[in-house]
Design a protein that fits this description.
Blueprint: E1 26-31, E2 34-39, H1 44-49, E3 56-57, E4 64-65, E5 78-81, E6 86-88, E7 99-101
The structure holds FE2/S2 (inorganic) cluster (FES).
FE2/S2 (inorganic) cluster binds next to loops.
GO molecular function: iron-sulfur cluster binding; oxidoreductase activity
Pfam families: Fer2_4 (PF13510)
InterPro entries: 2Fe-2S-bd_N (IPR042204), 2Fe-2S_ferredoxin-like_sf (IPR036010)
Length: 109
């Protein structure tokens, strides 16, 4: 079965499931223009992957990425901010109001 009524695909949910430390302060951020919630102390990678199944689109094809080493060594988790600078998602704490993008903006290429 694919899709739902009105052609809207079902929300796939996050790749990561939070099992502990659920009492930390909530943090709001935007991911591709959609408001999402994380918890204070989450890395950007955790914040994103508890909301959606992938971290970013690769620059070189249709594949999606979700990080690899999770410790700042592999370079697989670079993600873009609306303001321009890229950040390494696995070693950057999420902050209130961050505006993150899962792909480069078309006007940057
Ligand atoms: S996941 Fe490897 S550097 Fe971030």
């Amino acid at each position: 079965m694919s899709g739902t009524a009105f052609g809207v695909p079902p929300d796939p949910g996050g790749r990561l499931v939070r099992l502990a430390e659920t009492g930390r302060e909530p943090v709001r951020f935007l991911l591709d223009g959609v408001e999402r919630m994380a918890l204070s102390g989450d890395t950007v990678l955790t914040a994103i992957l508890t909301n959606v199944p992938s971290l970013r689109q690769t620059e070189f094809g249709p594949e999606k990425r979700a990080g690899f080493c999770l410790m700042g060594a592999c370079q697989d988790c670079w993600i873009w901010q609306e303001q321009g600078p890229r950040i390494r998602a696995c070693s950057t704490p999420v902050a209130e109001g961050m505006r993150l993008l899962t792909r480069t903006r078309e006007d940057w290429t």
